[in-house]
Amino acid sequence: MLPSHLLSETVQLTGGVQVLILNSAADPFVQEAAKQPGIGSIMLAEDNIAALQPVQSALEQEHGYLSPGQGIYHTPFHKYTSMQPPATIDVAIMDLLYQPGKAWMDYGLRVALYALKPGGSLYVVGAKDRGVLSIAKRMQAYFGNVETLAIGKGQRVVRSFKEAGQRHDAMLPDDTSPLVPAGFASGKLDEGTRLLLEALEVHTTDAALDIGCGSGFIGIHIARLARKGSVTMVDASLAAVDAAQQNVEQSGLQNIVVVPSNGAQAVLAQRFDLVVTNPPFHLGGIHTTQVAERFIREAAQVLRPRGRFYLVANRFLKYEPAMRACFKLVKEVSGNTRFKVLRASQS
Fold this sequence. Notes:
This protein is of the alpha/beta class. The chain is built from 12 helices and 16 strands.
């Protein structure tokens, strides 16, 4: 994880400063910044509600809301330029550790150029293996300047400032679709998803749940088969939720709802006949099984007694123990050398 002291020692915030956190709400710097006296406001431009909610709660509990025009706010990362005015921010911060891919990093640079006042600074922190050197080159291209301010424990902080007279719309991000996998829109399925769809047993009247729905391809496929049932799709990514909702509208199907949710938290009171997931196994750039294991526990909680749970994963990921701890029956029902589809039930 990022050593918080590197940013804290490098970025000095003066009284009344307006700070923008670019999809990096989980960075320790956020809570450090909130403690600095005279802080103007902190805007969390965050996509992942799983990262946003605990940080937002901790900040509001400790600091509360300040006077009108000040405080701690949130706006969806992928909607910043459509929801917020340009040239209002003094300092923008982006931690590469929390960006899902290069498209997200590049989008963050463009948002910073739009959001910063003339003379405002963008600070980017990251390691070489997260692409900080290539991002520094893009900062030079976009802003016309870049400098390295600090190096420590494999991380470095680089800064660009917005020059006077530089147009805020010069590199305006006009298409957020690269932030969400294009599988549904392009008609191309990844191998794991294809295996999952081929293995699924879907009944006409099923009430189904897709945890971590992404752009919604799996849920839409199920909805077509469960034409007398219903499908609920949830994802912690606000960009994914919007993309899924758009794809649902294009499908013309009326038996689907899309809900932003940290795992299945938003629907724990509901019960389903069928639960599916293609869970992520990276969190903040770190390989982890924790997200999938939580999805498994939540699936067991919301599944009806005779329900079915399907999970697709890379073959090397050992999810079977977690599934056997929650379900009586666990079986591999499809797979190849790269992927496996596991089916679980209580009977």
